[in-house]
Structures
1.
Amino acid sequence: MAIVVKRPKLKWWEHLYLPAIVGGMRVTLGHLIKTLSGKKKVTMQYPEEKWDENLPEHYRGAPALVTDEQDRERCVACQLCEFICPPRAITIKPEEIPSDDKWAKVEKRPKAFDIDMIRCIYCGLCEEVCPEQAIFLRKDYAITGTSREEMVHDKERLYEIGGKRVGLVNKWNGLK
Amino acid sequence: MNSLTDITPFLAADILHVSIAATVKIVAFVFMTILPMVALSVWAERRVSAAIQDRVGPNRVGPFGLLQPVADGIKFLLKEDFTPNHVRKGYYWLAPALTMVPALLTCAVLPFGSKLFGEKMVIADLNVGPLFVFAIASLTVYGIVLAGWSSNSKYPFLGGVRATSQMISYEICLGLSIIPVIMIYGELNLGSIVQYQAENGWAILPLWGEGLSVKGFLLWIPIIISFIIFTTSMFAETNRLPFDLPECETELVAGYHTEYSSMKFALFFLGEYAAMIIGSGLAVTLFLGGWSLPFGWLTPESAAADVPWWHGVIHILTFFAKVIGFILFFIVIRWTLPRFRYDQLMRLGWVFFFEIALINVILTAVILWIA
């Protein structure tokens, strides 16, 4: 059923438009003065002001690999992240840890670990699925490059972004 | 130039003097003031619009982004000047020039100052100032019509048609609205009109001189009506919001300049802003006392009297301050009012303004006759 909306009946001075113009200009000039006097917060001036200090705790930026207290790479190349990654951005080449290595009991480590940052959708599933707490989404958001090759983060770069992380559950330490 | 009785043959030195003075004034006023003002008003438009919408606006190029127009200009110059295959080439090329040139021509009669070093601060001291402005300014519509027609595509065509009817309709209101003012001044020379206002109170602020009388206050009513009609018609003539129907983005893509690119588009853009500045200049001259300061401060004794050079400089600055204020008013109005519907626009022009302006003329005549 159609709803009939009654047109408001305007007073004679409302028909003149002029009071409406004055009222409208009060609004626009109010905004103008507020913005010019700096009372109103406006857009962040990006390259000078960065997001870094203002990012929320749960922000999901670039994924990165971390090392533990003993500088051991936490990744054991189980490839779960590679399999769960929705856009298939992760490529892992596992390798066996030689028996004379200090961490031979861990058995496996990644030989190559590439994340294609053009493909990555920052969903955080890799972090969620990792049984070793080896991959984390950091707060880096300005991932740039001038070629496709540059946008692929290799193992070295991933550890550089991730750095060392302490206070995690340690499955493998010198004792165990 | 003074009168026909003065028929002493011009000496070569006089001709030289007149032509040099005219050239200097044209270069200083049109090329070194109006054109930079056009560029700066584009910057002001963007900054003020941004501030009204709680944004920052262009602030990267130069201090406060003041060099943004230069960057825009370079961009326009370096872009490919693309002429679509389906346009009528000759008219398509002619149209942008036809919008820009009349707008700049009209500043010839605007008195932008009293006197500086004994020279009248007006390029052509014509005795038919407002008539000249309307005659030339109405040529602008040809540029828009040609652009709309020669582009040979639907949106520019619709924009052109709208522009034609809108500009022709509002030209009538514009012309009629200043008749009361001219009746009161009894003068068509814009310089003398300003001198009169300097001595006897601005048209919309008659608070000193002869303006401060019963007659002055009675005449204030038709002048205010004139001012409102004039300003509104000026918005319609320059295709500014709330009357920007010839180029409304939401309906017509970009209206008559849809098919234009690079410098040709820039010419339309600049022509529009130049028209806005000249329109503001005319409104300031006719209603806001032109270059004169309020309450008769620093007013020259007569139009012919000499003024000290620093008075002349202050007068020029006053004129431009007023024009800039008027342009800011244009910009604020843009973000205050929504666009009119086409039938509302036509109704406002033909049913209300036309009649009110006519009645206003009669009202002024009656008041002048009684008082």
2.
Amino acid sequence: MAEPVIVAENLTKVYKMGDVEVHALRGLSVKIYRGEVAAIMGPSGSGKSTLMNILGCLDHPSAGSYQLDGEQVAHLRDDQLSAIRNRKVGFIFQSFNLLSRQTALSNVELPLRYSGKTENRRQRARQALIDVGLEDRITHRPYELSGGQQQRVAIARALVNDPAIIMADEPTGNLDSKVGQEIMDLLLKLNKDKGTTLIIVTHDPKVAAQAGRIIRIRDGVVESEGL
Amino acid sequence: MTLAQTLIEALESLNSNKMRSGLTILGIVIGVAAVIAMLGVGQGAQNSITGSISGIGTNLLFVFSGNRAAEVRNARPLTMQDAQALSDPFAAPNVDSVAPFLQRNNVQVAGGGEQTSTSLGGITPEYFVVRNFKVAEGEEISQDHVLGRASVVLLGVEVADKLFGRHEGLVGETVRIEGQPFRVIGIMEKKGGSSFGSQDDVVLIPMSTARTRIIQRGNDRVDLILVQALTAESVPMASEEVAQILRTRHRTEIGADDFTILSQQDFLQTVQTILGVFTIFLGGIAAISLLVGGIGIMNIMLVSVAERTREIGLRKALGARKRDILIQFLTESSLLSLIGGLIGILFGWLIAYVVGQVATATGNPFTPAVGLDGILLATISSTVIGLFFGIYPANRAASLEPVEALRYE
């Protein structure tokens, strides 16, 4: 397989809840390769969400090293992490998380606004919406769209900055199985066409089964990596 | 993000909760309007009073007994003889005319079947020169009237209206002052209102008559001596001459004077100081409501930050830096206060205008002056308030952890 886009070694994460220390990750190491579709599974409390937050650069590990797309990011300051997220990570959430007041186009444009790129911003956002099959919904607002369409907008938003990885947190969790499958098909198609690395965090075995590899987490370490 | 985008987003956000934004803006509107109106009315009052003091006469000195600046016991009263001494052209070459004055307030005047309470002045003919008073009909009080202790009276326009319902054709009528009959010899020209009360609500009678029949004050005492200097430049010299003469006459060459000389300029300064303090006081009270408006902004921004925690989390996840979020919320709070400030300026102007109209309608013509400085002050202070009270909520929003914020329900 190709070179790894994510190299995480010995990640630990300790939360302090009052006087009690909670060890969410206990020396977890994982590699994810460019162009791969990886599913992260695990029961609640396994450290799955913590891992996703760290891999998505939303949170710092307590210890360990994390290299994303060739850059060490474990010890970056918050604003530097913001820049990394902006350039290298696309997020897809279970509850879509669109700005309800703004049109689909403005929502997709949002990451470009924070990246400071001004040229072709409109055009790139429009192209991303076309890529997810929403060319006729460009000026609609989220409440005028169905759940599946909203998630497509979210996918376009995740893609628009050409990120190194896309983190999808239960992307089909709020959708019925038919629409959910359409979203999965779209994600897999984008992965195939554009070669974007896709990391899906899910409970759903049917979703996980469509990934190239399932990484199972238990008690803060990798239990198995079914290749 | 560009400035235009930031502004548009902030406007969209404020627009999405119109009622709330409107009420928050209202708080600032009231504060700014109060400041503008208070400053405008205060400045207008100052202009009006300054104008009426200047209207009393020109190049005047007011001389009265006693000294407020130093403690003087047994101050000798001013007398007719003092007044005569001041008119000596050799001792006081810079003095043009001298008008002694006796006054009593709340004098009962009856006539034409009506009765009214007014203030009475006992005067000499010089009074007309010094005060620039003219009669609209009839004749002035003459030296003959003074020497003969004549029972004659000049009515102010307002007194004439109250007693007879008119202020024309009244010469020869009889009025009773404190029960004693006086013949009306004239009506004074309308002077208009002043901030010390209407200058038309007076009756004037000869000094000698006032002393013997109405005021009963012995020793030739007078309440006030008005001195008119030859020119504006000679006012200080005239003042010094008057002081010298009175010191000699009152034998107070050593120690503090037992009389006080105030020029019109002194009066103006005193009044302006008092009114300045008054205006600042009013403005200060108004500023408190502006402060309350600012707290309203802070409150609503805190609510807004709490409500939009997820949105903030999302924006951060998509790459917004701390500064981006800070600017976003500061823009919203500043916009609230800026819009409120602009509406408040218009509204305050309107209030000041209405106050002026009401004052004019009730016979105290007075024009509120809303100055550019007041407008600038209100605009700047409202924007600063928006920024200041926006900082805490905005900072709170900017410091949210993206993980926490995204999880927030």
3.
Amino acid sequence: MKTRLLSLWRTLTWSWTPISEREAGEAVVRNFWIHWFPAKVADQSFSWSYSLWLGTISLVLFFILTVTGFLLMFFYVPSVERAYWSIKDLDFSVSFGWLLRNQHRWAAHLMVATVFLHMARVFFTCAYRGRRALNWQVGITLLLSTLLLSFTGYLLPWDQLALWAITVGTNIAKEAPLVGDWIYFLLLGGNVIGQETLIRFYVFHVFIIPGFVLLAVAYHMWRIRKDGGLAALDRLESSAEIKEKAPVPTKTYSLFGLAKGTSVQVKGVDKIGEENSLFATPHLLRRIMLVFLVTFTATLLLAIFFNAPLEEAANPSVTPNPAKAPWYFLWLQELVADTTLHLGKYTISGGLIGGILIPGLLLLLAALWPFLDRSSPQSLGVWFPPERRTQNWIFAVIVIAIILLMYIGVAMRGPNWKIYWPWQNWPQLPTLL
Amino acid sequence: MVTIARRTVLKVIGQLSVFGAFLIQIGGAVRAFIPNVLYEPPKKFKVGKPEDYPEGVNFVPEHRLFTVRSANEFGIISAVCTHLGCTVRWESKVPEFECPCHGSHFRPDGTVISGPAPRPLAWFALSLSPDGYLVVDRSEQVASTYRFSPPAKEKA
């Protein structure tokens, strides 16, 4: 009886421990959900302080966003007449609708932050060199997709924030040379922002961009393994401390038994040594569950205590004063406001310079950086290696400039976009014109 | 004499027809996103009677423009900022038009004082409808000096 209860408890709590290495390895291959894991993972990859687990956190946030998002789709109506009121219903009449919406929003804001921090981590640890350049570029498209998801997302409530963001956003696209007017017409589905525009951005938000992100993330993960795991392992492999071992042809953890030789990951583990790695089950699985729980709890707590704001219903006649984008776009708003150039009788609008050229060049610079970088292999997978001081400073200065612009936008811009010190009061303005 | 095997010819025709069919289908799908009918407000519309507007600058919210009146002379200036499309506000004390999104400032004649706006605010042509309403034609831009004087009312 006692043993039966014990086995029942074990079944319920799934306290599975592999009895042999073979069982541990096979457990990965036989399970659909984790078959894409490597069988063994180097100790280094578990380090909190090396990777900060930012990529995993971003993926967890994307998962939370997908689940809360598809639930929200049951309540949201993508129509200019009803969108705003369906959000009001979520906030006030649907049971726990506010919780769904809040969690979706907080996960979205956190995801912008973690995806960017993940990028910064990869830069500061020089983990984008050589064969990893392609995955770095995939990462940049994922950062861009995250921002586009946020943008298309906050348009959907069709409040004042949404309407003026879509107005400014599409007008920036209109500034693109040659194709601008054509893109503007296609984005709007006409010449005036309305129902056609909302439904286009809605489909982008709930299907096209998330679908792309799903595929790109899968490729991103696959490439990490094909490129030999985290960059920190490369240095371990190349360091003299680890002696080259003879390959063990009889023992393979490759995914498919038919594969000849050893898989990339196994080769890595062989070089690092069996004793310096852990089986993916249960160690990696447990770690990912822990990261999931912490991330989920964080978004849930934020959602319980801080409500997602909703401005007044969209009013195409009157722009709120001042009209501000969310924090992650405020630096762009600041740029488009400050970069109009007057050259003799020619004027180049800030929409083109600050809205398209500068962010475009920053993305291009980031994408090409792996090929400009001349760091030695010793710097690979190390935080702030001395020889990369200049490079790290360039990255840091760009980030600090962006944060400064954000701060000016958040704290120092008042009515009619005038500069006020944070401690200065804004003048009282009549609300209507 | 170049000889091409019948099999090669048929194979190329087959491949081209498959890819051609796909391309045409994709083309059709893309074309569907360019609307053929637009249910948009007309470019020419009434904005009220001349006597509805007092002296000076008045905002007409539903059409995002200002009427500018001086005695019997009327002008229509757009409230859409030429920078990125927000609605500018009339600050009568200064006096100038100011944009709440990126801080462009315009003189009462619409020209740019400061800020990112690349062009002056647009002025539109005015006319009077037979039933006595001011009619704005958004498709016809005019100079900032343009003013319209509605003919004096004939007493019946």
